[in-house]
Write a structure and sequence with these properties.
Length: 464
């Protein structure tokens, strides 16, 4: 009987305890469980040893010059060598075991090892590796552990290096964390010892192979038809938009959707730490920041790229995320003829969004009075779209808020749409997004663009 079949068939199942509650029966049951556990562990170790031997022999015989990008051809080559090695080594496996072993070895050579099936699972949105033995995923906004593991911390490190090496990034003790991306645009963050005390930690934010559409956002309940119609008009009429929210709230997804409203005849420059935006327009220039090299030189920051983008004759500048002094240059761009620019940032509310912009602007080191900074913010930003991940795991737009100007030293804001939470039933948040009945002050700019929104979009003349 083969290795895995012996575990699955139940040959080592302990005998059922006899009726009664005497200590002998309980002791016998515990002893049987320990025997089963030991047998299962021994079988698993044998399987891992077999996998390692076949994999090492396969790597030794595989032509080093083979082009791993030609996946179908390489897979055929590996299949032939795999079958040959099993015959030479006289390994006897069932069809299921043979298929499983082959898939695991192919994942090690061409993919990301144990993570490969998780990457191919479209129901998973995030993968979290906490050391070699603890792997978690996010499904439908909820985190759950999966019964997969790496062989060792060194195994995790090999996968991390496979991700970052093609991008010219590095990760070692002198630079123990890195941001990167997968070929499909999924965002990757890795942090290793000595900074991490649980071993190498890898976090992958999967990006949908087919970006979410407007209809899907409405279907998911993330946003309403009326508010999306309003945002469509804002983007086309070149209103400056900031999308805010917490980690994993869906900011980048919403930015990608709103970017799709930009007319195709405009020149767009996108700036990101790890390129993940998937714009459909033809005239798009994608820029990506770069960390310093091993000598501490050659760093290209988001701020450097924003400054450079101003010399590239852009119609729109889209910054994936503002998190530092680049905020000053982004505000300058919005105030100097690059209307319709968009960015995202982390915050807890629309009001916090503006406060964070002020703080990040001061990080630039300029001796600028606070009132002058707030005037810049209120002049540059027209609209804040705030998104949250609610307790049931759903992601929803909570506020669509206009920045109306200054009153004294305070930036004034007006909600155009607000999400009202009505209750929580059957592990689901019950609520709705409603218009406040107020029209934004920049409606003249929207109408000047030839876009005329019906009053019903703002809840005017309708019963709520």
């Amino acid at each position: 009987m083969s290795i895995l079949r012996r575990i699955q068939s139940g040959d080592n199942q302990p005998p059922s305890p006899q009726s009664g509650t005497d200590e002998g029966s309980g002791s016998s049951l515990m002893q049987s469980r320990r025997t089963l556990s030991t047998a299962s562990q021994s079988s698993q170790d044998t399987y891992q040893d077999l996998k390692g031997r076949v994999q090492n022999k396969l790597l030794a015989e595989l032509d080093p010059s083979v082009d791993v990008t030609e996946i179908s051809e390489v897979r055929k080559t590996i299949q032939g060598l795999f079958d040959q090695i099993l015959v030479e080594e006289n390994f006897v496996l069932s069809r299921t075991e043979k298929s499983r072993l082959f898939d695991q070895i192919v994942a090690e050579i061409l993919g990301l090892g144990p993570l490969q099936p998780l990457l191919e699972d479209d129901t998973i949105t995030e993968i979290m590796v906490n050391g070699a033995k603890n792997i978690y995923v996010e499904r439908r906004g909820k985190i759950q552990r999966v019964p997969l593991a790496f062989e060792s911390n060194e195994h995790v490190m090999r996968i991390i290096e496979r991700i970052v090496a093609p991008l010219g990034r590095r990760i070692d003790e002198s630079s123990p964390y890195v941001d990167a991306r997968l070929p499909d645009g999924s965002r990757v963050n890795a942090i290793i010892p000595p900074v991490s005390l649980v071993g190498p930690v890898l976090t992958i934010r999967k990006f949908s192979k087919n970006p979410f559409t407007v209809d899907q956002l409405i279907q998911f309940g993330s946003i309403t038809t009326e508010s999306l119609q309003f945002l469509d008009a804002c983007v086309k009429s070149r209103i400056n938009v900031v999308i805010s929210g917490g980690t994993g709230s869906g900011k980048t997804t919403l930015l990608n959707v709103l970017s799709g409203f930009i007319p195709t005849d405009e020149r767009i420059v996108t700036i990101e730490n790890a390129a993940e935006l998937q714009l459909r327009q033809d005239h798009v220039i994608t820029l990506e920041s770069r960390p310093p090299n091993i000598e501490g030189k050659g760093e290209i920051t988001i701020r450097d790229l924003v400054i450079n983008a101003l010399r590239m004759r852009p119609d729109r500048i889209i910054v994936g995320e503002i998190r530092d002094e680049a905020a000053l240059d982004m505000l300058q761009a919005m105030n100097t003829g690059h209307d319709g620019s968009m960015t995202t940032l982390h915050s807890n509310s629309p009001r916090d969004t503006l406060a964070r912009l002020e703080t990040m602007t001061m990080m630039a080191g300029m001796d600028i009075p606070m009132r002058a900074i707030r005037e810049q913010v209120s002049s540059a930003i027209d609209l804040v779209v705030h998104q949250e991940r609610l307790r049931d795991g759903t992601r929803k737009v909570i506020n669509v808020t206009e920045v109306t100007g200054m009153e004294g030293d305070v930036i004034t804001m007006t909600d155009i749409f607000v999400y009202e939470q009505l209750g929580y039933e059957n592990n689901k948040v019950i609520g709705r997004m409603r218009p406040t009945g107020l029209r934004p002050k920049f409606m003249e700019k929207i109408e000047a663009s030839g876009i005329h929104l019906p009053p019903s979009v703002f809840g005017i003349g309708t019963r709520r």
